[in-house]
Each structure stands twice: as structure tokens, then as C-alpha cells.
Write a structure and sequence with these properties.
Low-confidence stretches: none
Helix content: 10-25%
């Protein structure tokens, strides 16, 4: 798993696909699992 540290918090990120970067940010109480269906539609 890939993480970067921001203000002493580990932030998970995932790189997939090709082309221009797209950043998807979920709400503060949500999980990255909540956006997987949207990611599958985009790719």
C-alpha cells in the first residue's frame, strides 16, 4: 500500500491506468472503498 504523510497523518493513495492524472477525494467520514464503483466506471 502507498501512503504519504501530511501533518502526521498517513494518507493512502493508489495509482492506476494511464493518461492525465485524476484525483478523487471522498468525504471525511467515508472510506476509499466508497469510491471504487465510481473508479470502475471512469476506467
Amino acid at each position: 500500500m502507498s501512503y504519504f504523510k501530511y501533518e502526521n497523518i498517513n494518507i493512502y493513495y493508489k495509482v492506476s491506468g494511464e493518461g492525465r492524472p485524476l484525483v478523487i477525494i471522498h468525504g471525511d467520514t467515508a472510506s476509499s472503498k466508497n469510491v471504487y464503483t465510481r473508479i470502475k466506471i471512469l476506467f
